[in-house]
Amino acid sequence: MFRYVALLILLLPLFTAQPSYSGEREQLRGTQFIGLVKGKTLSGKNTAGVKFHLYFLRGGIVTYMDKKGSKDTGKWYVKDDKYICVRWQKMYANKQRCASAYYKDRKIIYHGMHGSGEVDLLAYIADGFK
To answer: Would you say residue 130 lies in a domain?
Structure first.
């Protein structure tokens, strides 16, 4: 019995979809991104310097809200297992925007054709701004 438990402990890292926490910037694949953001808030500042929160929900729903009261909802999906794509209902004229996502130091860094930036990965669902 002990051998089976020890073997399971050794093999467990092979079956998890979470990125490493080594401090190295690591590109997130589809399942890694989903596992990392599920039940958490992505928090950052938009190009105007206004704080915002993103929530990636089950079923491909994403929501946005910022400190000034702007809100939007959209659809998100993973493309080619390496791009996170979003189509907002109001923002960006309802056009698809895709970006590569990387993880480092509790931040998700994104690079896309329409810009780059980073958001903090909070370990909880934030319901307001500080």
So the answer is: no
Nearest to 107 by CA among 29, 16, 42, 35: 42
Tell whether 4 is covered by a domain: no
pLDDT tens digit string along 63-112?
999 999 999 999 999 999 989 999 999 988 889 999 999 988 888 899 88
Write down the H helix ranges in 18-112: 30-37
Beta bridge partners of 63: 55, 73
- With contact defined as beta carbons under 8 Å apart, do 36 and 18 qualify? yes
Question: In this structure, what CATH number is given to the domain that contains residue 50?
Answer: 2.40.128.640
pTM: 0.72
Chain centroid to CA 123: 12
